[in-house]
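Hello,

Following up on my earlier ticket. Below are the two sequence lines again, exactly as submitted.
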Amino acid sequence: MNRFYPPSGLRESNPTKAEGLLAGLHLDLPLLTGLILLCLYGLIVLYSASGQDSGHIERQAIRLALAFTVMIVVAQIPPAQLNRWSPRLYVVSLLLLATVLVIGHVGKGAQRWLDLGFFRFQPAELAKLAVPMMITWFLAEKTLPPTPRRLAIAGVMILAPVLMIAKQPDLGTALLVASAGIFALFLAGLSWRFMGGMIVTAVPAGWVLWEWGMREYQRNRVLTFLDPERDPLGSGYHIIQSEIAIGSGGLYGKGWLNGTQSHLEFLPERTTDFIFAVLSEEFGLTGVLILLSLYLFVILRGLYIATQAQDTFNRLLGGTLTLVFFVYLLVNTGMVSGLLPVVGVPLPLVSYGGTSLVTIMAGFGVLMSIHTHRKLLPT
Amino acid sequence: MAYITLKDYLRESRLFQNRALIAAVLVVLTLAALLTRLVVLQVINHQHYTTLSQDNRVKVLPLPPTRGLIHDRNGLILAQNLPTFSLEVIPERVENLDQTLRELGAIVEIADSDHKRFEQLRRQRRRFDSIPIRVRLDAEEVARLSANRHRFPGVEIEAKLLRHYPLEDKTAHVVGYVGRINEQELQTIDASSYSGTTHIGKTGVEKSYEEVLHGKVGLQQVEVNALGRIIRVLHSEPPEPGQNLQLSLDAGLQQAAITAFGEENGAAVAIDPRNGAILALISNPGFDPNLFVEGISAKDYDMLQQSGSKPLFNRAIRGQYPPGSTLKPFIGLAGLETGTMTANQKNYCPGFFQLPGNSHKYRDWRKGGHGGVNLEEAITQSCDVYFYALAHQMGIDKLQKFLARFGFGRVTGVDIAGERAGLLPSREWKKRTRRQSWYPGETLIMGIGQGYFLATPLQLAHATATLAARGVEHQPRVVQNISGAYQPDTAVNVGMTKTLQQSSVNNWIKVIESMTQVIEGQRGTARSLKNDDYRIAGKTGTAQVFTVKQDEEYDEEKVDKKMRDHALFIAFAPVEDPRIAVAVIVENGGHGGSIAAPIAKRIMDYHLLGR
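Thanks for your patience. The regenerated structure is below:
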């Protein structure tokens, strides 16, 4: 049955004593190791990026602890339970998104969170989990690949929360939620012809929107979004500075705490969206290679877990969550290195800030649950 | 069955493994592409970026464009940019901010409001941006500060251009004013083309021509030293200054009209019927727009807001008034054009009008009535009963349709921001807004310009101009020319022009003749305007502010000034070849002929005779 052979490092080895404990906690050692290494690496970079501010490190460490706790808790929930919760979770997140929109509308400003008194909750973060869960729940109900009718329904299920999030406006999160839905469809066996067709229809639709649906200033924003260099006073400046930071890092970097771009404040958003540039400047291509290897390991391990899962829901959900994690990485590094337009997406597990951290770790909790709740089959 | 399920299960599993493999390959390929990009940056172009980073004392600064000037038709400046000096602080470069501010306060006066604004701006600004602590320094203050400058690192005296309106309240309601860009405006403007620009048009022409006036931002790449001081300019793209506007407005006429208003509240609009150019637009009283440029103080603003004469309210384009009898020429024209009656047909006016089967008496302003009157006599004497009957005969639908042609009930599209549409009621409108059907009595009072019907002074002037031009309608325009240093060709600004549908031009001539009799006739309501220099066609109007009860009499002496009728007058001149059309409204001014007409005369005199 096992037709996907991952590199040997990703394969299960014989259980040891420690692994027995981890298995009892429903944790997956390789994945856990990868995640911990990434987070530690992130803290080292953050210390430099924040201007050696131990306060930043403390706060981030607390957030990481919280996020890992969430991961462990989620890992205890059997996947069958998650499957049952999916529709309810989806409906709740839609309602919360609508609430945020209404409150934002009344308050006459952009609003993304609900104030729960003790903390601010962003429904869009819940949607990042609820949407892939709902789509995989829906697709796994019937035989794959999905029929065109079911495909259309799934499309609406994805579009509704995405549009609401885009309206907040939070383009980065909307993109992540949309990609979650699309990956679920892709993994479910969406036909290549259909995917080609979507791309072909998107082009004239975009043109119509451009010609008749937009005002001059909106077009300008889109143009700047696609090509920041045409706006050297705004985001173009950020990209230019970020490229200088990365490029001047060279093979081995300027050394930890020695990045001039970040410490002389030429680099914007050093601790958050642009932290990858700080890493590249101080640790060079070597540091980047280490970081990307860690990410690659985590992603491949995630995909491997998905292939080992025992039913369609688990497989699709595991694969989707892993690929969304990859989108985080791709959009952030692509933006910082000037390959992709500027979208506010953090470097996962490394950027300072806690909102998306918890969601990402909850996602890994799901992966661990999928992997550790398997029923043993005779081989 | 079980076999098929198992087979599907296997197929699904295989499908997924397939897709997962493809995904894994894509992940690796994408990461390889990213890595390639990083190799390009970090290995191939490493030297280039190292140089850049070593020299990275380069900052990009925006060079805000100079805002375009606004002139009147004779070239008189209405809005200009005056250099002013302000004292600015970069908090990050100041060691002890409180102490510095205290010491600066000993050299120049820094008020509490200055401190408040400073704190507010400080929270909004990016790091290393300079923040004004004092604006509009005078020459002596600049001198004192310059002498002490060495004591204050991180403190600069900045010279910048500030918008100034030399005619102050005379043109405030046309030109409008600029103010600091606020949060809401930030949402709609292109942030980078406004980087460096602090002000934006808030009202009037300043707002409606914002794009033209603003210009194009330039930028400067500068080298700065460790302290942030500019050492040299590496590259600069100069800004393109905003274009200048020449208005059709005549500042002298504007002044003359305001003088004619005296202490009265009201509005006047004068339009050239040949092209729709606005010659004067007054809302009295005005206000000093210069107060708003650097942020008006709470005290000044409260004073303007709470003043009973509402100086901030632009009555000329936003005030909506019942036009009263000034609507009668249009109703008369409607009667002729729709064939409801002929000009010579006489109607008997006993002093009141009753709808068949209804005892309610719709009264004429003259108690005894006007006797038998034809259209000309009805307009000249402003007979109400004649128009009750005419409106009743025509019906609301025809009436509404005809008045809509003159632009009532919708914005004229004038190029001054903030115009309102007035109200031209119809059956459909009443059903929609009040959920009631239209009553015949409402048609009657609309015949004398009362009831739901509302028009702005601009709409009245516009309709009068269209009447004067015998049905040629020009969209009103206050900006005549747009020109700029970078665009030597003067662009002439014209609005839409169209000719109204007419059944006979004689009908128009008849109505205009009748309006001439308002001034020249024995029983005309504006006989005082008769003069030897030019002939005027006009119509007086009185708009009720409150309703007199049935069988009760309105006594001007007894009512409170605020409850007194509005006085209106519309006119154009010379009758033969009209060059100016005017609408005047004096709030609570009483009768149109005695107070509004002389103001209109003054405006026409100034324009036609130059005095």
